[in-house]
Write a structure and sequence with these properties.
Blueprint: E1 2-8, E2 11-19, E3 22-26, E4 34-35, E5 44-50, E6 58-63, E7 77-81, E8 89-93, E9 99-106, E10 112-118, E11 125-127, H1 130-142, E12 154-161, E13 164-172, H2 179-185, H3 189-195
């Protein structure tokens, strides 16, 4: 069965497929497919993502098939191909033992996100911005209530001394779109935009 299909709008005839099992590429809009699994530790998984600005650059998150839906050696890894699947490079290795990453996306050339299922507690969020990753990991591991989601626009600060991390503070702005709030206040669309 098909688990994920990815493509880039600038290469409309090229598709990347994570199947059950198999990792494939089509260069003719899906009429024929060739395996691109060589170089990956397994050919099973759920995530396949195309880079938002570079056609032919793709990311894959391999896991073991069927009953054991875990990454090989229980170490989550993200692999990247710069040449449409001809070769793969290890891009990320998970260092959080209770995280199982199975969803990822990129919204520009420098920012992406990987989300973990809740294996033993809160969701784990890793972004390509190292400071946000570290902030989230420290909150999960050290704060009694965990990381908790921040809504809207966010600021996250880490406080460090010569002795190590002392603390972290996170601020979430008001959500830009919250229909119940806007109706209660009586804001029109233009009023909401000017206030938030």
């Amino acid at each position: 069965c098909v688990h994920k299909v990815a493509f880039h709008p600038a290469a409309p005839d090229q598709f990347f497929l994570q199947n059950h099992p198999g990792v494939y590429r089509s260069d003719d809009a899906g009429r024929t497919w060739q395996s691109i699994a060589d170089g990956l530790p397994t050919d099973f998984g759920f995530a396949m993502v195309s880079h938002p600005h570079r056609p032919g650059v793709i990311y894959n998150f391999p896991i073991e098939a069927d009953v054991r839906r875990f990454p090989p050696d229980l170490r989550a890894r993200v692999y990247r191909s710069e040449d449409a699947g001809e070769s793969w490079t290890l891009q990320f290795t998970n260092e959080i033992p209770d995280a199982f990453y199975d969803a990822m996306a990129f919204w520009d050339a420098n920012r992406g996100i990987a989300v973990s299922d809740t294996v033993a507690g809160p969701f784990v969020l890793v972004t390509t911005e190292d400071e946000r990753r570290l902030w989230t990991e420290l909150m999960i591991g050290e704060h009694p209530r965990g990381a908790g989601p921040l809504v809207g626009r966010q600021l996250r600060y880490l406080i460090r001394s010569a002795h190590g991390w002392l603390g972290g503070v996170g601020f979430g702005a008001a959500a830009l779109h919250l229909a119940a709030r806007d109706r209660w206040i009586g804001w029109t669309e233009s009023q909401r935009r000017s206030q938030l």
